[in-house]
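User: Some background: our group keeps a shared notebook of sequences we're curious about, and every so often someone picks one and asks for a predicted structure to add to the entry. Today it's my turn. The entry only has the sequence so far, pasted here. Could you supply the structure so I can complete it?
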Amino acid sequence: MPLLNLIRWKNLLIILLTEAIIKFALMDYFFASSGLSYRMTNEIFVLLALSSVFIAAAGYIINDINDIAIDSSNNKNRPLVIGDIKISTANILLYAFNIIGVVLAFYVAFETKKIGLAAVQLFVMALLYGYSNFYKCSKLIGNIIVSLTTALVPFLIWIYTIYDVLAQGFMFSYDLRWMHLSVGFYMLFAFLSNMVRELLKDKEDADADLVNGCNTWAANVSSISLKSLIIFILSLLIILLIAYQYYFPLSILFRSSLSIVYISIFAFVIPKLYKANTKQDYYKLSVIMKIIMLFGVISPMILWL
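Assistant: Of course. Here's the predicted structure to add to the notebook entry:
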């Protein structure tokens, strides 16, 4: 269906999955372990998740509207390129989705008695707008913005939870310190892993980007410079994983499962990155990184085993 393709429904499902796992698998685990009965109500969670999905969908739409020229040579099956959806219709959907997302955000913020929390979704909207209109082709800034919006997905659930009126002031108790740090870990994991994937995708699309005047950093630097930066970010990611495994007092099974991530990086990503030369090589690497990211997303479920 053209509309589902336009809003990149698979990515929206990943956002929903991430938010559900952060709430039900990660944060609720720490509440249960600490003997706390608090839970964000399912109704509030659903509305909060929907607000982020509508805003993300609007972000994908505005990105496709601005990328028609690039997609015409690089991604010819996009709905706006082949005419399945008119640009005027896409603009209507863009405004409608943003309005729905903002209304839901303010409603949830009102229900939690912290109306200022809606600023998080407004900030994400601003980032997505700025990325699509000004920074997508800026050297590294666009990559950082996209990675930041990815990191804000777990942050959104966390910030609305700790300031929920039902929390009654115990959210910053010593017993929950590992919960806060764990959310921080997953935010950093999302940022670093997505940054690598964004660089790989930019290199994959480099020829079409340059033809259309989109001078991304990955398209303008040598392969050695690109690979060096990716290796550096992967090194930070591995250090982060090892530190989380070593210092956090969680189950051995859960901590051991995280080894799959850096084993995959050593076994698949780095060797393939070293040999990568073609568009197809970088495409395969971006797919591998997406799988690694997905495993990171679902890993908190292991806490309950």
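Suggested note for the entry: The first helix runs from residue 2 to 6. The radius of gyration is 20 Å.
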